[in-house]
Amino acid sequence: MKNILLPTDFSENSWNAIKYALQLFKNETCKFYLLNTYTPVIYHVEYVLVEPAQFGMIDNVREIALKNLEDFKTRIKSEFKNPKHTIETIGAFNMLIPEIVEIVKDKAIDYVVMGTKGATGTNEILFGSNTVHVFKNVKCPVLAIPDGFEFETPHEILFPTDYAITYETHHVKPIIDINKLYQTRIHILYLTYGYDLSEKQEENKLILETHLKKETYLIHEVGNQTVEEGITNFQSKTRVNMLVMINNKHSFFENLFFKNTINQIGFHLKIPFLVIPAKL
Q1: Domains recognised in the chain with CATH numbers
Q2: What is the pLDDT of residues 161-176, one digit of tens each?
Q3: What sequence ranges are listed for the domain UspA (predicted)?
């Protein structure tokens, strides 16, 4: 059984991500944890100490969160009716990231599936701040679903790499799991700048190929393009249904997503994005 965490702020973007997860794992026995965290906007410890009545405000916010969670749970059961799926709701008076980190550990979560933006997301921002912080801090594969993306079978997975990591089982297992569900084809994209692979890169490439020996995969080497250009140009030629990257420090992933250009990177991601942590 897979354990899947679905954070929601009750926005349509988060509902869209929930729908995607339910469809992606429709043939798997899954337990979905529907999570909402709440902190009253004007909540301050000092204020509550002076005004105990403010605890009533916290109770009210909690009641609203729990009602909305139940509404989403009812909506899921009504629209999907999947006997393989069970839903548990979690309403937590906490900040989102610490709560997700705790649940991932306590519930042995296999995937976190969430929208790319929150309720206040704008089109100019590729990822909302919550999504970025989840990528950075959660030791679990995170699948981010673009706003408005309708589910499509992930037949073609794009996996850019610089062979800078020694691939372990947990790096490739999420890809293989999806591959087993849909017989996908994995496109490994290596962006070359005219230099031969180092000895370490050659070793890592061989390790990756060993992990994927039972899967269908193709290796593409593309020269003199940035990561953004390489991904965008590949997508223009091949109908890719999912982008996968490993969040490895000192790799092009970190340069691409965690530098100051996080909200202005050079391509618009229109497909689901699976981020796999380098370390668990």
Answers
A1: 2-145 (3.40.50.620), 156-277 (3.40.50.620)
A2: 989 899 999 999 999 9
A3: 1-146
